[in-house]
Specification:
Layout lengths: L1 E6 L2 H11 L6 E6 L9 E2 L7 H10 L4 E4 L2 H5 L2 H4 L6 E3 L3 H8 L1 H10 L7 E5 L3 H10 L4 E5 L8 E4 L2 H15 L6 E5 L5 E10 L4 E3 L4 E2 L2 E3 L3 E4 L4 E4 L6 H21 L5 E11 L2 E8 L6 H8 L4 H10 L13 E8 L23 E4 L2 E3 L5 E3 L3 E9 L2 H14 L18
Parallel strand pairs: 1-2, 1-4, 2-3, 4-5
Antiparallel strand pairs: 6-9, 7-8, 7-9, 10-11, 10-16, 12-15, 13-14, 15-18, 16-17, 18-22, 19-22, 20-21
This protein binds adenosine monophosphate (AMP) and glycine (GLY).
Length: about 425
């Protein structure tokens, strides 16, 4: 079959790498892709939210299936746009994508279906005074979330009540543009986080993918600013059978049943951002796509034909198809541009990638310049992902690979996975 994958990050590189291994794939296109995705398919200069251009391309190239990597096209309704057309879509309807597109919607959904999550209330500029009063009823730290998509920046966690009240006013006043016109205030939960990915077929069928943990902060010891992700490990030792049984019973089953009960079509990935609160899983957030950089670790551990699974999900019947996991551990370390997640320079030449043989390099912010040189073009530049017999073994491989790749200003965290080895 011919597949069009939408997106340009490390996640899409990993999805493309995995899909390319399927004998079912004839042609794989990535729109727009990056400087590394040409190794798995053909890059197409097209915006993932330009549905008309995508439709034209799909017609001209006999595309059978579109796999949506990032959330923007889903929240904008790509599934609905193609619903009455021949091409299959891996991704939820616009109504389903609101689980990520609106935190208030997601919280209401969880409340309606008894899915464990932090206590919350939502406020707008009209109810600012009520919001301030609600903050007074909570204990520090205070968690304030912009309702809409804010490129991963819309969550503030503040220790001081007066500052939290001030931030609420600023958020409602447009700190994150329209996405913070509504603000969700919720109770702070304390625990260690992990990411659980579920592929659903919209008819009650689902498969759980390998569980991963990501490392969001720029600094070692989880300090400093939030980033798009600095590394990932899969599997996660604390997500053992007891924990995952609770995740399945208390979160996955009611989520899938809730979507069906609410008449929301959902054929694609559900990303559960979970927190382990004293052994009990609670939902921090839903996303409607795979995680980045978790995908760069998770794909290495899938021992089944991903394309077959995606096609079955898009067709609405996962049937008895297995999703097998490799027992080995995967470790991903992200190399970023100096200055990221603040401002950074682009266009730095990247060398040494051809000498890496123990890891897979998934490109994220890379491109080819006019003369074909590989150069940096984003904050997160390249992921080094490796399989090993332990977290330490997989990490050692990834770090040796990171050392072989050079570009001006390269930065990475040296403590990925350390918390899981204690
Ligand atoms: P989100 O964008 O909802 O994933 O939030 C970003 C990050 O903020 C999460 O990954 C958590 O580390 C943290 N966070 C969000 N909500 C809470 C909460 N209720 N309690 C503690 N930490 C939270
Ligand atoms: N790694 C978290 C995310 O993709 O949102």
């Amino acid at each position: 079959m011919n597949i069009l994958l939408l997106g340009s990050g490390g996640r899409e590189a990993a999805l493309a790498w995995k899909m390319k291994q399927s004998p079912r794939v004839e042609n794989l296109y990535i729109a727009p892709g990056n400087g590394g995705t040409e190794a798995y398919g053909k890059n197409v200069a097209m915006k993932p939210t330009d549905f008309e251009a995508i439709e034209k391309f799909a017609d001209e190239n006999q595309i059978d299936m579109i796999v949506v990597g990032n959330e923007d096209p889903l929240v904008a309704g790509i599934q609905d746009y193609f619903a009455d057309k021949k091409v299959k879509i891996v991704g939820p309807s616009k109504a389903g994508a609101a689980l990520e597109g609106s935190k208030d919607f997601a919280k209401q959904f969880m409340q309606r279906h008894n899915i464990p999550t932090a206590r919350y209330r939502s406020f707008t500029a009209e109810t600012l005074a009520d919001g301030e009063k609600f903050l007074e009823t909570l204990k520090a730290p205070y968690v304030l979330k912009a309702d809409g998509l804010a490129a991963g920046k819309g969550v503030l966690i503040i220790d001081d009540l007066a500052e939290a009240k001030k931030a609420l006013g600023e958020m409602l006043g447009g700190m994150f543009g329209a996405s913070s016109a509504t603000v969700v205030i919720e109770e702070f939960l304390s625990g260690i986080e992990c990411s659980v990915f579920v592929l659903t077929d919209g008819n009650g069928g689902s498969r759980i993918l390998p569980v991963a943990k990501d490392y969001k902060r720029i600094g070692e010891g989880d300090t400093g600013l939030n980033t798009g992700g600095m590394g990932a490990i899969s599997p996660v030792p604390f997500a053992d059978k007891t924990f995952m049984d609770k995740v399945e019973q208390r979160i996955i089953k009611p989520t899938i049943a809730g979507l069906i009960a609410d008449d929301i079509l959902y054929r694609g990935f559900i990303f559960l951002g979970l927190i382990n609160v004293g052994g009990d899983p609670m939902v921090i957030e839903y996303n409607v796509r795979m995680g980045d950089p978790e995908t760069e670790a998770v794909m290495l551990r899938i021992d089944s034909d991903l394309v077959e699974l995606l096609e079955a999900a898009a067709d609405g019947d996962l049937g008895e198809l297995p999703l097998k996991e490799k027992e080995q551990t995967a470790a991903t370390v992200i190399m970023v541009s100096g200055g990221y997640p603040g401002s950074y320079e682009k266009g730095k030449e990247i060398t040494g990638t051809e000498t890496v043989d123990e890891s897979i390099l998934f490109h994220a912010g890379t491109s080819r310049d006019g003369s074909g040189r590989l150069v940096t073009s984003g904050g997160r530049v390249i992921a080094a992902s490796s399989l090993g017999d332990s977290i330490a073994d997989a990490l050692a491989k990834s770090y040796r690979s990171v050392d072989k790749v050079a570009f001006d200003g390269k930065y990475f965290r040296r403590d990925i996975g350390q918390d899981l080895m204690k």
